[in-house]
Amino acid sequence: MPLGRIRIVISTDADIVVARRSGRELADQIGCSHTDATLIATAISEVARNIVTHAGRGEIIISPVDEGTGEHTAVEVVARDEGPGIPDLERAMEDGYSTGRGLGLGLPGARRLMDSFEITSEVGVGTTVVMRKRRST
Amino acid sequence: MAVPILKQGDYLIATIQSAMTDSEAEQLRDDLMERIGRYRSRGIIVDITALDVMDSFAARSLRNIAHMTLLRGADTVVVGMQPEVAFAMVQLGLTFEDVHTALDLEEGLAFLDARTGH
Questions:
Q1: Cα–Cα distance between A104 and A38 in angstroms, integer?
Q2: What is the pLDDT of residue B58?
Q3: Are the C-beta atoms of residues A104 and A111 closer than 8 Å to each other?
Q4: Which of A17, A34, A42 is closest, CB to CB, to B92?
Q5: What ipTM describes this predicted complex?
Q6: Which of A23, A25, B26, B112 has its CA 20 to 30 A from that of A40?
Q7: Given B53, B56, B84, which is nearest A102 (Cβ)?
Q8: CB B55 to CB A112 under 8 A?
Q9: What is the pLDDT of residues B58-99, one digit of tens each?
Q10: pTM summary value
């Protein structure tokens, strides 16, 4: 069966668990190490919780990525919501800055767990995170 | 599914499953706080052997459990963290500086015995 993208609607804390489990499964399927799969699942957990806490509702799309080698060598995670948006992105990416009930490590932590991490946000429109991790060789 | 809590002598042993949600973590905290009073427990072991993801919320919940139970007179020790989970926690920037940890259930029990003078 060819690997495809998985879309998970995020609105409750149970959806966070579903999303991170899906991420781990896909990471396993493309041959990521157990450690990499754990890092990906943890990063998904953080961005999914951000959706539940700040936007209430959103989606996570997890896809296998072929970076030009003819095989899937990376996992891409897109987390999207149409929530209130983040007024000060620079601060939101600082360790310890939190407006929710977390430790303020969610977004900057997820960035450290992944190889690439991009965030765009507009107040009143929503927030999108695109992050990727390559399989270690 | 609620986290099962076993009473063993003066101790309570909570075994966390891989798919623990935020609300189950909060439920565990409340359950442990209540049982410390009911059973007059002196020590708590939280076994996270099965937990495959420790994110910032789960880490904060466990830290809160350790601090709150200590205020009720019971020492908490977290046991069984998988190596990958420890790696991810460090990458994420999470610390357990003020939480007692042990390799496994056996070490956790030995730790509590030493603390409580058994």
A1: 20
A2: 93
A3: no
A4: A42
A5: 0.92
A6: B26
A7: B56
A8: no
A9: 999 999 999 999 999 999 999 999 999 999 999 998 888 889
A10: 0.93
